[in-house]
Specification:
The chain is mainly alpha-helical. The protein has 18 helices and two strands.
Length: about 425
């Protein structure tokens, strides 16, 4: 009965995934909905539903012909294909298309060899009780198994388990990258959980069939252990697949885009306000005088967000900092164990903190560093990715208020100015 509920639920969600896939396609062939990544997700959702459908009575005997349990081999092939299509979703989302195609072809080639071997093992005795998923089959009633069937189980699910781990690992890494899109992060996390549960089921299935090959018949049946896990794994996987597919449509919906743009603009307000108070000239249009008024600016959010990002970059270039500020911040950040983008954000925040202090004092007569972006922020700025720029400036704002490295460099502002004046030259940028 659990499989029935899951299959009905999965079918409904697959229908929503189809709608999510087709509806945005009206916007043109370049829409993400028509990409290979989203197509892979759609196929995975539909095939997962087909796999579960073939596992419940009376459909579990639908393809039984002259005592041959064809349902088993069809369900196995479709079920294992699901996790490959989920993997393809990640591939075509993060890799260049040529690289993604090469990897996908390699995976499918390996799977084709596995399927060929399974078919050979199945054909050796397609009427074996091992392949009967009903009450009379070994899976549910227990008892010894046929060696060829056990090997078919082991071979099939060893491949499936490997792919479960691959998809789970990549999915958890993607959750961190998708934190700005909660619906997408939720779908990725749920699917990763489903993949891990599926791996536990696979581990039991492989161990059980190895025992049968060794002539050991466990006192319990596979069904008792694996069906509950399969139900939970199926539920989590279908939720995850559907939520991920829907998110690719939802995040492009006008209301969602409007909310995200307004929220992103407000997120940058505290940093922008500090810049504007010391450099009013950065404002492109009459600015809000408080956070409340900024929150009430709800019209044309995209334009306002782009303006705010441009104003932040203008502020970045406006503030003068003494020579050696960036080198000091980078060295102290490294000493604190910081690396990569986190270190770059702290260096930028330290530079701004010193720049703000110098601007307040009115001191301008000292050799200053050329106000260029750090490597990370330069890449972000040139990419034209608004979301990446918002994340960058958000990280800088967080470091500005919380990083002990920024506080330490800020405390040495007067020393940095005096050293810069004494040196008489600007530090290289």
């Amino acid at each position: 009965m659990l499989f029935v509920y899951i299959t009905v639920f999965a079918t409904a969600w697959s229908g929503l995934a189809v709608v999510a896939h087709l509806r945005p396609s009206k916007r043109g062939s370049d829409d993400p909905a028509t990409s290979s990544a989203k197509t892979s997700l759609l196929v995975a959702a539909v095939m997962a539903t087909m796999s579960y459908t073939l596992s419940i009575p009376p459909l579990s005997t639908l393809l039984t012909v002259d005592g041959m349990w064809i349902n088993w081999i069809v369900g196995i092939v479709i079920g294992n294909s699901v996790v490959i299509y989920v993997h393809m979703f990640y591939l075509f989302s993060v890799e260049d298309r040529p690289a993604a195609v090469r990897i996908a072809r390699r995976v499918w080639l390996i799977y084709a060899l596995v399927v060929a071997a399974i078919i050979v093992l199945f054909v050796m005795n397609p009427a074996a009780r091992d392949f009967d998923l009903g009450p009379a089959g070994r899976y549910r009633s227990g008892g010894p198994g046929e060696p060829a069937a056990s090997i078919a189980y082991i071979l099939s699910f060893a491949f499936a388990g490997t792919m479960n781990l691959v998809v789970c690992r990549v999915g958890w890494r993607w959750v961190k990258l998708a934190k700005a899109t909660p619906w997408l992060a939720m779908g990725l996390r749920t699917n990763a959980i489903g993949q891990m549960l599926a791996f536990f089921m696979v581990a039991h299935m492989i161990g059980y069939n190895i025992a049968l090959l060794l002539g050991i018949v466990p006192p319990w049946t596979q069904d008792v252990v694996e069906s509950p896990i399969k139900g939970l794994a199926g539920l989590a996987t279908m939720l995850g697949l559907s939520a991920t597919a829907m998110s690719l449509w939802i995040r492009n919906a006008r209301v969602v885009v409007w909310v995200h743009d307004n929220r992103a603009r407000r997120r940058l307000y505290p940093l922008w306000k500090q810049m504007y108070d010391l450099a009013p000239g950065i404002a492109i249009e009459p600015p809000p005088t408080s956070a409340l008024l900024d929150m009430l600016r709800v019209w044309q959010p995209k334009r306002q967000l782009v303006n705010r990002i441009v104003e932040c970059w203008d502020g970045h270039r406006y503030f003068r900092v003494p020579a050696g500020t960036r080198d000091l911040a980078r060295q102290q950040g490294r000493d604190a164990g910081l690396r990569g983008p986190e270190l770059d954000a702290v260096v930028e925040a330290a530079r701004l903190a010193v720049g703000f202090e110098v601007a307040r004092s009115g001191q301008r007569e000292f050799p200053a560093e050329v106000s260029t972006a750090s490597e990370a922020s330069r890449i972000v700025q040139e990419s034209g990715d608004t979301a990446a720029e918002v994340r960058w400036w958000g990280d800088v704002l967080t470091a500005l208020h919380t990083s002990p490295v920024v506080a330490q460099v800020h405390a040495r502002t007067d020393e940095l100015v005096e050293t810069s004046i004494a040196s008489g030259t600007a530090a290289p940028s």
